[in-house]
Amino acid sequence: MKIIETIEEMQSFANQTITEGKHIGIVPTMGYLHDGHMSLVNRARLDNEIVVVSIFVNLAQFSPNEDLSTYPHDLEADKTKCEDSNVDVIFCPNEKEMYPSVPLTWVNVDIITKYLCGINRPNHFKGVTTIVAKLFNIVKPSKSYFGQKDYQQNRVIIKMVEDLNFDVKIITCPIIREKDGLAMSSRNKYLDEKQRKEAVVLNKSLERAKWLIARGETNASKIEFEIKQMINKISGEIDYIEIRNAKNLYKIELIQDDVLIALAVTFDNIRLIDNIIINNKKL
Amino acid sequence: MKIIETIEEMQSFANQTITEGKHIGIVPTMGYLHDGHMSLVNRARLDNEIVVVSIFVNLAQFSPNEDLSTYPHDLEADKTKCEDSNVDVIFCPNEKEMYPSVPLTWVNVDIITKYLCGINRPNHFKGVTTIVAKLFNIVKPSKSYFGQKDYQQNRVIIKMVEDLNFDVKIITCPIIREKDGLAMSSRNKYLDEKQRKEAVVLNKSLERAKWLIARGETNASKIEFEIKQMINKISGEIDYIEIRNAKNLYKIELIQDDVLIALAVTFDNIRLIDNIIINNKKL
Predict the structure, then answer these.
(1) Which of A5, A178, A256, B148 would be a feasible disulfide site paired with A182, CB 3.0-4.6 Å?
(2) Which residues in chain B have their CB less than 8 angstroms from residue A110's CB?
(3) Is A259 on the interface with B (CB under 8 A)?
(4) Whether the predicted pLDDT of B282 surpasses 60
(5) What is the pLDDT of residue B281?
(6) Residue B150 resides in a domain
(7) B24 CB near a chain A CB, below 8 Å?
(8) Is the predicted pLDDT of residue B67 greater than 90, yes or no?
């Protein structure tokens, strides 16, 4: 497994790989890899001759009041996990390498970045799309892998790829959960014991919503209300609970077609998100 | 020479070319090719195994009040010129191909797009950087060629390439002029006989500025004033006359280092730009 820290070396490796007719799959991460990340790596391993995991905590997608400084990292553990999963390259540039001078250029996706996580994190997606564009230009992948947990991020990146004609296929992989249903996240480790137990309610409320819809409930507000009641019983503070069209992210009132139920809940400063896609036609 | 009209075919051709170890040079144009464009093509021909000329009148870089609808075009003449210059591919997608749905994604460069041409054309550079990003993702060039006439555009694109890590080298080629000194432009054909004669003053005023600096003048305001006086004698209306640092485009008062003198003048609805770079150290 190669460890590459510079853009020049990464591009040169990518060019060489492509000239050899091989395809590169990238799993972009901020490190502190868990089984969710590794499920993306395993999927990438199946699809591509070369698998690159990028590890970079991207300051541009954090707001000043967010947890950039405390975001967990453990590069040695990440390396071991990648080695064990037959990753070919870890690309782990430092901040100076990725932002050598004041950046003036931003890749911005309008409208679908304004709601859900965009309300309380107004510059978040601009940071995400810009770093992903950078990574695509550096690593030159044919396919890129993201987890469904960041569902809105996936839709935003897919729209960016379409609009800017990146020759990269975006693969969205299922949410990986702890045994009790909590969606895996690098931030889970900051939950105290009580919060950790309570956080299970996020997934439970989504399962409850699924059950309601399976039973024939089609009123989105009613479902949102039921979820809200469940989460109000725990100490986490609701950021949003929303039901939207899974494809275009438009707000809906009537459950039909593919539906996204998404939520964000903050325990002290620890912000957790979760979601479920319900394909109403298949119910 | 291949004529390619779809993104899919262009990307597939690019991928094949790169896999063969060949390099692509692109000359992005809006068509109606003149000797200025062809000088870029000739330079690209020297540097690359494969030369692609893109022809696309990019609506996104025109404001509603601008000359999009009357922008000149003559694809047959363009094809002949490209054929004669040993171009390998003309990439000429239509609008529907390049903007199949409402685009939500924009590549925007801040600050250096706000002055000079950015004042009267507030969305112009956002349109330019976005289409250039799209073209880079579609044509996958190693090098891209632009004329110095659009000097600010060149600096903006260079900054975009740096910030987003496009693996593309930007080559800026000298301004090509008519015999009487007028910078070549697809828009020159709209000048009437009187305007055409008057337009020569744009270049003459820049040459005068160069002469003043060679004589030891270091006061930027004084030079701007002299240029203004010359241009005020013709019917064209001054949009701007500015002296700036040629690299970072900062406004300067004292002539030193590399200096850009740039101007924009409008005859009726025909907006002409011209500029000169003066390397003070070499004087």
Answers:
(1) A178
(2) 104-106
(3) no
(4) no
(5) 63
(6) yes
(7) no
(8) no
Q: Which of B144, B173, B202 is the last residue of a domain?
A: B173
Interchain CB distance below 8 Å, B134 and A165: yes
Residue B157 has pLDDT above 60, yes or no: yes
Query: Which of A:82-121 have CB within 8 Å of B?
Result: 101, 103-112
Average pLDDT, chain A: 96
Interchain contact, A108 vs B105, CB within 8 Å: yes
The pLDDT of B77-96, averaged and rounded, is 98
**Residue contact A163–B129, C-beta within 8 A:** no
Both B8 and B88 in a single domain? Answer: yes
User: Mean pLDDT over residues B215-243, rounded?
Assistant: 97
**Any CB–CB contact under 8 A between A143 and chain B?**
no
Query: Do A149 and A255 lie in a common domain?
Result: no
B159 CB within 8 Å of a chain A CB: yes
Digit-coded pLDDT (tens) for A31-59:
999 999 999 999 999 999 999 999 999 99
Total number of domains constituting chain A: 2
| H-assigned helices in chain A | 7-19, 35-47, 75-84, 95-98, 117-120, 124-139, 151-164, 193-198, 200-214, 220-232
Is the pTM for the entire model greater than 0.80? Answer: yes
- Residue A283 in domain: no
A120 and A13 in one domain?
yes
Query: For residues B38 and B82, is the Cβ–Cβ distance under 8 A?
Result: no
Among A42, A11, A2, A7, residue whose Cα is nearest residue A25: A42
Dist. CA B200–CA A247, nearest whole Å: 56
ipTM of the complex: 0.95
Q: Does the beta-carbon distance from A105 to B101 stay under 8 Å?
A: no
Query: Which residues in chain B are contacts of A111 at CB distance < 8 A?
Result: 104
Cβ–Cβ below 8 Å for A129 and B166: no
Distance CA(A91)–CA(A50), nearest Å, equals 13
Question: B203 and B124 in one domain?
Answer: no
B179 is a domain residue: no
A279 part of a folded domain: no
Half-sphere exposure of A21 (CA within 13 A, CB side): 2
pLDDT for residue B222? 97
Of A173, A196, A217, which marks where a domain is finished?
Answer: A173
Please indicate, yes or no, whether residues A133 and A10 belong to a single structural domain of this protein. Answer: yes
Q: Which of B15, B104, B164 sits opposite A159 (nearest CB)?
A: B104
d(CA B132, CA B130): 5
CATH number at residue B206: 3.30.1300.10
Largest CA distance in chain B: 57
d(CA A273, CA A264): 4
Q: What residues of chain B lie within 8 A of the CB of A7, using their CB?
A: 165
Pair B13, B80 in one domain: yes
A158: Cβ–Cβ under 8 A, 6 or more apart, which residues?
A170
- Residue-range definition of the domain harbouring residue B242: 186-274
CB distance B167–A19 less than 8 Å?
no
